[in-house]
Amino acid sequence: MRNLLAIGVILVVLGIASLFVPILHRERHGIDAGGTSIGVTTTQRERVHPAVSAVLIAGGILLMSAGTCNTR
Predict the structure, then answer these.
(1) What is the reported pTM?
(2) 50-68 pLDDT, tens digit each
(3) How far apart are CA 47 and CA 43, in angstroms?
(4) Distance (Å, rounded) from C-alpha 7 to C-alpha 14?
(5) Nearest CA-CA partner of 56 in 20, 23, 21, 19
């Protein structure tokens, strides 16, 4: 049961972090000709959709509640 509690805590922390921390996405555009390369690297910061964060948080809360229940 402690495993469920630990996994639930991890999911809640990841869900809350996904609301605030953007994910970096880098793309390189250019050409390579022989030993020479010409290009531009672009970086975009994208956030996870709030529904994904809500699912992570809700799943974590459910696992934490299941991990703390004693079935004796």
Answers:
(1) 0.70
(2) 999 999 999 999 999 988 8
(3) 13
(4) 11
(5) 19
